[in-house]
Here is the input.
Amino acid sequence: MSLREELAGPAAVVAPGVYDALTASLAVMAGFRALYVSGAAIAYTRLGRPDIGLVSMTEVAETVGLIRDRVDVPLVVDADNGYGNALNTQRTVRLFERAGATALQLEDQTLPKRCGHLQGKSLIGAGEMAGKIKAAVDARHSRETLIIARTDAVAVEGMEAALERARLYAEAGADVLFVEAPRSREQLGRIAAELGGVRPLLANMVEGGDTPISTAGELGGMGFRLVIFPGGIVRALAHTARDYYASLAAHGSNQPFAGRMFDFGALNGLIGTPEMLALGETYAKFEGKEGAA
Here is the structure.
């Protein structure tokens, strides 16, 4: 079933955030049928920096390609603001689609953009953003590549403007609407009530962000069809990594931390090392029908 068909179903699709092939494979092992390639998570891990527009289009495309080589579930990819104007956006769509993206999320912030749950954001005009959405739709190779239109207007222009922008982006051809950072359950409910009949809706859960955390079941009951948890994996890993390095520095050994980590064999088993080595052996020597020359 395609992601488009999944979003037309009765339950919300949950897409956990990933930032590389390892986290993607672990998420798939846990049973998730779609993943969210988080620009923020890439910035946190590849650069060790905040989500303030520092990650480039090619860095994200490379990451998507590496993830796609490892997993075959739908990938919802954070494409920031298309990395420029409408023509830049078209190039982004073509590049990400070739890399393996199933859906691209585009937002209406100016350059440089910043995380949707940081303050001090600024927006381009609604008409300009609608033009970028139209350009993205025109550039995609397959209709099954979804264009997700995100507006950050709640924090900048207010809820009414955010709803107006979302409707305009739907008219421009967006397949999914994403009103970022509503500040209460009442605002979440209003978004669902006013836009749920227009296009499938995306909800973003950020631990410690502006939007109150809800379960996928609760959000699905409101009318949201896609729920992302973009940066949670990095917050979890950063917490564990801090504790690991502190333990190693204190003890000069990993032994006190052994119960909280995989050993060499367990990790190799998790990532499929024995299977890959066995597969390699099947290609080690090919002699053909007449034998080696």
Remarks:
- The CA atoms of residues 114 and 182 lie 16 Å apart.
- The two ends are 47 Å apart (CA to CA).
- The longest strand covers residues 13-18.
